[in-house]
């Protein structure tokens, strides 16, 4: 374990946090939102910001660094994976012909990662675009009990599934980031 970086944080108030509360973009002023839909959207935004925070300040090589062999998981792979799952959710909402996988074959989102800035830039742009497309598609269905798409999945189930997916991958990102430079925190 001599190659492992020493643990560190930028937080000064609470040493186990990623950032001090007054510097954390996930912290908002006031009370939490009212209503189920607003609460689900708030949690979704929180996890989206968290995954981006776990990637900030790293170069292409660090973002593409694999975790533990034989896994092909990397922070860049996680970003690309979330692009694909956003696209899948958008497909579940609609009744039309599904959009194809953006990165091709299954697991290409992880397996085909290379340490190139152009791939990093594309992943961030793809993620932003696919998140906006899914959000726009869901905005047309504010009734959480409404069933959508060919499989007639409840909007509530889609929302909760999205939160679960991001939360799980934020946990992966915690471990990946700590292995890269020792940075820890919520």
TrEMBL record:
Annotated segments matching region Disordered: 1-35
InterPro entries: DinB/YfiT-like (IPR034660), MST-like (IPR007061)
Domain of life: Bacteria
Pfam families to which the protein is assigned, alphabetical: MST
Stored SUPFAM superfamilies: DinB/YfiT-like putative metalloenzymes
Protein name in UniProt: Damage-inducible protein DinB
């Amino acid at each position: 374990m001599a190659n492992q970086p020493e643990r560190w944080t930028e937080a000064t108030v609470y040493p186990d946090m990623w950032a001090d509360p007054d510097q954390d973009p996930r912290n908002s002023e006031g009370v939490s939102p009212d209503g189920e839909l607003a609460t689900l959207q708030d949690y979704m935004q929180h996890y989206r910001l968290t995954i981006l925070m776990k990637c900030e300040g790293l170069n292409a090589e660090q973002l593409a660094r694999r975790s533990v062999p034989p896994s092909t998981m990397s922070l860049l792979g996680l970003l690309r994976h979330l692009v694909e799952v956003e696209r899948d959710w958008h497909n579940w909402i609609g009744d039309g012909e599904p959009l194809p996988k953006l990165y091709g074959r299954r697991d290409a989102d992880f397996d085909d990662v290379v340490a190139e800035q152009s791939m990093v830039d594309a992943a961030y742009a793809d993620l932003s675009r696919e998140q906006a497309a899914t959000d726009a598609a869901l905005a047309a269905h504010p009734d959480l009990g409404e069933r959508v798409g060919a499989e007639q999945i409840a909007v509530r189930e889609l929302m909760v599934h999205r939160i679960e997916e991001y939360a799980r991958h934020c946990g992966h990102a915690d471990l990946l980031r700590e292995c890269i430079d020792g940075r820890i925190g919520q």
